[in-house]
Amino acid sequence: MKISSQKIYEQIANDLIEQIDEGKLQEGERLPSIQALSKTYGVSNASMREALNALRMIGLIEIKHGYGTFVKQKHPLLFDFSNQTLTQKRVKDILELREAVEVKTASLASLRRTDADLKEMQDALSEMARAIKNDTSGEVADLKFHLAIARASDNQYLYELLNNIADKIQQTMKGTRHIYLYSRQKRMEKLFNEHTAIFEAITQQNETLAAQKMIDHLQEVRQTLVENFIVE
């Protein structure tokens, strides 16, 4: 199988994900060596290592030095429920809280935002764009964007409410963005465009549109997590 693309490692990772999804590669199965896989895909060892590292990051494979690389599980590990307080129920609760609060912050921000607020949002969008270019998830910039909107609402309590659970919100963002990074149906550009649409509505001081664009975005986040077995 020969691959030629600017994002070679992503194509390899997607192919391996598909093989795992379809059961061609079973949990616990040992993968061929990096050298053998590189020859199969017609790529360099460096590209192969990058692809395997991407799968390791989302928990699909485990690299045991001196023993080899093994399929760890069938579905991406987006949240480690075993050793932290962020359970599936709490992820669902966080999403419901975001839907209840952030639609209002977007609405208020469209009416009260300052030029400084818009610059803060624009800076966060620029960071997201760089993340897309560098094939990284960009959840830090994502959180900055949403907190900037909350700050622009000029309501201290709404901002503090989101800021107090910022670490947990960021984990759900990271999970969503990992799905987008490695999904063959959804792209990071779509996520970026959703944020841009929210920003443009706030810039235009269109209260109704800002609220609707935030609703659309958060519903997409929820659906993405539901489809990938994260939220019941």
From TrEMBL:
Single GO molecular function: DNA binding
Name assigned to this protein: FCD domain-containing protein
Pfam families: FCD, GntR
Top-rank taxon, per record: Bacteria
Record domain HTH gntR-type: where: 6-74
Keyword annotations of the record: DNA-binding, Transcription, Transcription regulation
PROSITE patterns reported for this sequence: HTH_GNTR
The keyword Ligase belongs to this UniProt entry's keyword annotation: no
InterPro entries listed in its UniProt record: GntR_C, TF_FadR/GntR_C, Tscrpt_reg_HTH_GntR, WH-like_DNA-bd_sf, WH_DNA-bd_sf
